[in-house]
Amino acid sequence: MLPESLSYLHHALLFSCFTVLCYVFAKKIYNGMNKKPYIHPMLIASLSIILCVALSDISIQNYQQGTQLLTWMIAPASIALMVPLASNIKRIYASAPAIFITLFIGITITLITTLGIAMLLGVSKSSLLALSTKSVTTPIALAIGEKIGSLPALSSLIVIVTGVLGIITGPIIFKIFRITDKKAQGITLGLSAHIIGSAYAYDEANAPKNTEINHTETKEQNPSDNMKNQRNIKNQALNSEYVAFSIISMSLVALISAFILPSLILSWL
Amino acid sequence: MLIFLISLVSFQAKFKRIPTYINTAADFFLPLLPLFILPSCIGIIHQLELLKNDGIKLFIALFIGMLITQIITPLVFIRVNKYFNAHHPTKTNVNETKNSEQ
Fold first, then answer.
1. Within 10 Å of residue A89's Cβ, how many Cβ atoms?
2. 0.90 surpassed by pTM
3. Cβ contacts (< 8 Å) between A93 and chain B: which residues?
4. Which of A22, A39, A82, A93 to mutate to test the interface with B (most CBs of B within 10 A)?
5. I want to staple A184 with a disulfide (CB 3.0 to 4.6 A). Which of A14, A159, A217, B74 is the partner?
6. CA-based nearest distance A262→chain B, Å
7. Do the Cβ atoms of A50 and B42 come closer than 8 Å?
8. Residues with Cβ < 8 Å from A174, sequence gap 6 or more?
9. CA distances (Å), A51 to each of A46, A54, A60, A259, B86, in order?
């Protein structure tokens, strides 16, 4: 038998390495299959880990204890999100009125449609309360949930499902409705998929090869270096805007929700 | 987060750039963000019992709500942004329009 501290280290190493391996594997599949949204690494890795944990005799408590190191890293990574935001602050300031109006309309639509449909389907009140905090990150959803009296476990479950669903449906909708404006895409991802949406936006913006850019490049024959550089700079700026707008959208949705959601929900439901 | 953002913006306003070591740290952490969120996603496995009663209904409501939001939000943003750019142009907007025209 291993002493307790060694056993913890053993679990931490085993489960953290297993999670990293699953993520790397899922990312390889995603990159290899031309980045189809429905095989996003978050989904594939989550499903494969859930399957392994369910099929083996590993308890989920042990797994979560073992991966605490990875979970702790969310805090510095969330703070690091402020860097792309700060470097695009002028662009965000220039679009501030549009951002506020869009977020106000977006939050209202999300609440009315989701809760309205859930009410029509006859969902219980406790589930409705948990559903109302779907668009914010887990810590904020839990804080709001405490005020409105929703089940914390159900709230965090809905938040995660919303995030993963948002990054799967988002790119498909942008393609179908031909939404090419990167700012609009960023705002939508931040609003509908919170931090998972922002992480997705960063990942997409910093992908080594952007298919859209390559496609346009192949259309033009022998573009000069100067033109190429200019286009690269423009693409970099667009990608950086995409990330920054998703982060500002996520942050503002959390802020607005934390202030207005509790009183709104308590008076409505 | 807010304090960090304010410090970064102030630094940028004074020195016209973000410190290199902060950029390096951000470049390390940000690509790994989905990996850090992953263990929280796995945590949902022992909350699945909560979905016994309303699971499918909740998913339908979430899915339809998500689709409607993701269709309407970008369209609203594009329209409103266009309106503000045309009626209240700022320096940044004017520069952007000039660049796109070039």
1. 16
2. no
3. 90, 92
4. A82
5. B74
6. 20
7. yes
8. A180, A185, A188, B74
9. 8, 5, 12, 38, 53
